[in-house]
Amino acid sequence: MIGFEENEISENANGGTELSKRKLAHLIPDELLHEFQIIPSRVRDLKEDKIRLYWQHDLAMDPEVSHLADPNSRNQFHKFCFVSNWQLNDFVDKLKFPQDEKCQVIENPIDPLEAHVKPKDVVNLVYFSTPQRGLDILVPVFEELAKKHDNIHLHVFSSFKIYGWEDSDKAFEPLFNRIEQHPQMTYHGAVPNEILREKLKEMHILAYPSIWQETSCRVLMESMSAGLMCVHPNLAALPETSGGLTSMYQYFDDHNKHAHLFMQYLDHAIGQVHKESASNYLAFVKTYADTRYNAERIARQWEGMLLDLEARYPTKESRAFPKDEFVYKT
Asked: Does the predicted model carry a pTM greater than 0.90?
């Protein structure tokens, strides 16, 4: 892929980072990308003749980015692009990352979902992230709500297969089996993003009791664009991603307290989602997400950043490594 680096993890993955990377590679001119080495999260090797842009997707405490605490490591790069302000501040707090002209925040892109009509005879809930992010909270909460609401159905699209890590699913097989055995739940596993997006048109509520510190959240972006009522905690970058427009509740480290509050909010959402007032509100949220995260708009931000860097570093000599060489440990 021109400009954007692949590594042993990303080459077989179809997660949010990979979807964003492939979309931007399609929208940004090849002749511009040819001048760059854009590294999403994991450094493997550096090219001295390219403009080196380090595109952050991980948390500051991820071992893959720990080298950035060393100024000699930071000096190897011409630009650092972050996917949220929360993430940038995480790097500032934990890695003493300087906020200077090398830093820029550009949010991840999505393609807005087409307008559609949702079914009226059921309330479809959906979870479509990897299982370790809160599925073990959602399933027992839904089991309790299913005793009260006979018109709700939970659709779970969750598997580490999107990263090529099939063995990691084994720890969650009892949970997947529990979903499959419940008449009001369906386990779909991992499906291509284009199929998932079609399924989202039939969904009403994103049920996402996240316990994972998200630096950005494609799940939330696409759910807002799909006209879903989004129920999630105020953890990490989720408040920033949502724009404060979702059904967001206070996060608790205690999973029992988290589950109890999540169930209250989810129960309320089930009762509200088919009302006309909710329909008008969700239409506004969709317009907001479609505008803010529009892939064409985000690509133009990227193009502006790359053109500025190209003007600053026009020759191979201007892009050379500094004299203090830094050795990466991978």
From this structure: yes
